[in-house]
Each structure stands twice: as structure tokens, then as C-alpha cells.
Design a protein that fits this description.
Blueprint (H helix, E strand, L loop, with lengths): L3 E4 L2 E4 L9 H21 L4 H5 L3 H12 L5 H23 L10 H8 L3 H22 L3 H7 L6 H36 L20 H21 L8 H24 L3 H7 L11
Antiparallel strand pairs: 1-2
Length: about 280
């Protein structure tokens, strides 16, 4: 017999082997992937997933709070935290022109130039639209583990929420420092002045070459932490989400750093002195 789960939004019913509570988020993820792939074919622009990156994960987390009819305080807290994450990241992406026509990530253009057209389209369908939307769904799945373990909140949850807000603030500071640096860099270029460095190595960037990446990954590891506090068990299948996110960020950092090092010879010294992700005291 199919299990039926009543929610404030309606009734979910199991479909085959897919649990009812997974259906809203899974359906949205599949629809978003198909939409981004179709838009990329129509407009020949490939940053559609980037434009949804900060929007869909909070919706996925919120779908589990709805499945619990809003009666699970831990899921409500996770929805609020990921919502704050999404608002901050969306505003930062918008001010950089990501939602404007032609706001494609420059790295996609470089990769596209290195591939045959058929290779690029396979990469577009398989990785950009397919895998990345799967990943955005997976990082929200610790909320499903929480949904399956409706236990009372405790001090561990308060600690996780506090650390999440600290990392959220750290990412805000790192992105603001980067924004200010590039604004000043454009102003110097407009005045015809010589660029002294070319890349940011002060503020939080003096202690990590990617402090924004560090904070971003940390927030989703903390979201997984709520699955641990809810269940009392350290390892769950939903651990795959933050693990794959970490691997993606390291791959992205590899590619970005290779481009920066080729453009600015002094970047090699910065790489030698400053930690890659985890903030640390710079080496002499």
C-alpha cells in the first residue's frame, strides 16, 4: 500500500520506490535541470545553473519542513538558515551582473574554446545542467534525514546554527573585500594607472586564497550536522552531498588558480605563502 503523507501544502504519496517526502524536491531538481539545459540551447549561454545556485537549495530544504507540516523546529531552523544563505548569495551574484544578459561565467567561455562542439554539448548536458543540479539537490538532503528523525532540538543544534551564522558573515566579508578590490582595480584601469598586484591578497584573503569557498563549504557541512544531531548517528548516506560539494570547489579552485597564475606571475608566491582553503597564518 502506498504511504500517504499529509502536509500543510497538500498530500504527498509514494511513487514506486521514491519516498513521498522526496517527491517535491526531486521533481523541482529535475525540472530545473531540464529548464537550464533548454535555455542554454536557445540562448547559447551556459550560466543558467549559476543563476539558480542560490535559489533552489533553500526550496529543497523548505520542502521537507512543509512535509512535516511546519511542526519540526529543527527543519524550520534549517530552512531559515539556508534561506539567509540564499538571499546573501543571490544579492552578491546580482550585483556582479550574473542575472544580466551576457552575464555568463568567463570560465565557461574558456572551457568551451578548448572543446569540440559535440564535446561541449555533452559537458553542458551532463555536468553543467545535469550533475550540478543533482549536487544542489544532494546538499539539501540532510533535511530528509532530519525529517526521518523528528527528535527535540538541543544545544548541538544551537551551536551548529551559531557557527553557520559566523561562516555566513565570513563569506559576506570575503565577497565584499573582493568586490571592493575589483571596483578599485577598474577605477585604476580607467585612470590609466599601473596595476600593482592584479589579485587580492589582503583582509581575509591574506589567510586563505579562497575564504569565500571555505565558508560556503562549511555552511553545508553544518547543515549535514543537523542530520547528526537529529539522529544521534555520525554517518548517513546524505553525507555524499557536502563531500561532493567540497570536491567541486577544489576542482573549481584548481581551474581558477591556473588561469590567475598564468596571468599574474606573482600569484605563485601567493600560493606558496597562503593556505589554499582552510584559513591559516601566512608562511614567511
Amino acid at each position: 500500500m502506498a504511504e500517504v503523507v499529509a502536509t500543510s501544502a497538500g498530500v504527498y504519496e509514494d511513487v514506486g520506490m521514491i519516498p513521498a517526502a522526496l517527491l517535491p524536491s526531486l521533481g523541482l531538481a529535475a525540472s530545473a535541470a531540464l529548464l537550464c539545459w533548454a535555455l542554454s540551447l536557445v540562448f547559447r549561454e551556459y550560466s543558467w545553473v549559476d543563476r539558480l545556485w542560490s535559489i533552489v537549495p533553500p526550496l529543497y530544504v523548505g520542502s521537507f519542513a512543509l512535509a512535516a507540516a511546519g511542526g519540526d523546529p529543527r527543519l524550520n531552523l534549517m530552512t531559515a538558515l539556508t534561506g539567509l544563505w540564499g538571499v546573501r548569495l543571490t544579492l552578491n551574484y546580482a550585483r556582479k551582473g550574473g542575472y544580466a544578459p551576457g552575464g555568463e561565467d568567463y570560465r565557461w567561455q574558456i572551457l568551451r574554446a578548448r572543446m569540440h562542439p559535440w564535446q561541449w554539448q555533452l559537458f553542458n548536458a551532463g555536468f553543467i545542467a545535469g550533475y550540478q543540479h543533482l549536487l544542489l539537490w544532494l546538499i539539501a538532503l540532510p533535511a530528509w534525514t532530519v525529517y526521518q528523525h523528528p527528535t527535540p532540538m538541543g544545544g548541538g543544534d544551537v551551536g551548529l546554527a551559531a557557527l553557520f551564522l559566523v561562516l555566513l558573515g565570513g563569506e559576506f566579508v570575503a565577497d565584499q573585500q573582493q568586490w571592493d578590490f575589483h571596483q578599485a582595480k577598474r577605477q585604476r584601469a580607467a585612470r590609466g594607472e599601473r596595476e600593482p598586484r592584479g589579485f587580492l591578497d589582503t583582509g581575509l584573503w591574506a589567510y586563505s586564497r579562497h575564504p569565500n569557498f571555505f565558508c560556503e563549504q562549511g555552511q553545508w557541512w553544518l547543515i549535514y550536522g543537523f542530520a547528526v544531531t537529529a539522529s544521534g548517528t555520525l554517518v548517513h548516506p546524505t553525507l555524499v552531498g557536502p563531500v561532493l560539494l567540497t570536491l567541486l570547489f577544489h576542482g573549481s579552485a584548481d581551474f581558477t588558480e591556473s588561469l590567475t597564475a598564468a596571468k599574474y606571475p606573482a600569484y605563485a608566491d601567493y600560493q606558496r605563502r597562503v593556505s589554499r582553503m582552510i584559513p591559516g597564518w601566512p608562511r614567511a
